[in-house]
Amino acid sequence: MRLRIDLHVHSSKSEDGCSTIAEIAESARERGLDGFAITDHDAPLIYGEACELSDELQLVVLPGIEVSTASGHILILDPRRDFRKGIGLSEALNGALSDGSVVIIPHPTDPLSHGIGEKLAEDAAKSGAIIESLNASTLNRFNASAQKLAERLSVPAVGGSDAHIAKAVGDAYTVVDSKGVDAESVLIAIKKGLTAPEGRQTRKSTSLETIFKRAKRRINIK
Ligand SMILES: [Zn+2]
Ligand SMILES: [Zn+2]
């Protein structure tokens, strides 16, 4: 079955996003998504927690993290070890792949979003990482170059919103051809490359609202 899953969402579980996972779930449901991955910066959502949330919210919630490696960002679905901020890219990549986690290279060619760059993305893809070729929060030209990269390397491509507020969830997402409506089946399908990115860039007004809310949140936290 074809499930619509946003594979790149930030939440208030860390200091990163502005919306709670419940708010994200409500927005996902309104947008007709079947689920989402929580990928907060350097703060993992682990498999057991994701399964509990899936039951509670009646949506597929995938475990994840966005790791700030020394070379830029990588997404790991189903992280199974500690990935400290500033970890070497190859240490994070090799560790995650040997654990059986899914590694996604987000916004690879966008330097403003800490993309790891085309050369490192190419090396990572050759090791088994997949490419985020549609990120709703980056510029169209960076998505175009990411898409070209995935095509040139013949690696699976995925999409995600990179939302930091609930309203932006599902602006981009991945259609996953999964055997079941649960985290395990979806992760297996992603590993098999049964994915297709869909969606569009987040509206300018929503991006501005995100900037404002994140700034406000940072001030309130401190
Ligand atoms: Zn990022
Ligand atoms: Zn992100």
Describe this structure in words.
With 222 residues, this protein is an alpha/beta fold. The chain has one domain (2-221): Alpha-Beta Barrel (TIM Barrel). It contains 7 helices and 10 strands. It has helices spanning 21-30, 47-57, 89-99, 118-127, 140-153, 183-191, 204-221, and strands spanning 2-9, 35-38, 60-62, 64-69, 72-77, 102-105, 130-135, 157-160, 172-177, 195-199. The strands form 2 sheets. The chain has a 5-stranded mixed beta sheet with strand order 3-2-1-9-10. Helix 5 links the parallel strand 7 (130-135) and strand 8. The longest helix is centred in the C-terminal third of the chain and has 18 residues, at 204-221. The radius of gyration is 16 Å and the shape is globular. The relative contact order is 0.17. The model has no long low-confidence stretch (mean pLDDT 96). The site of one zinc ion (ZN) has 6 residues, from loops. The site of one zinc ion has 4 residues, from loops.
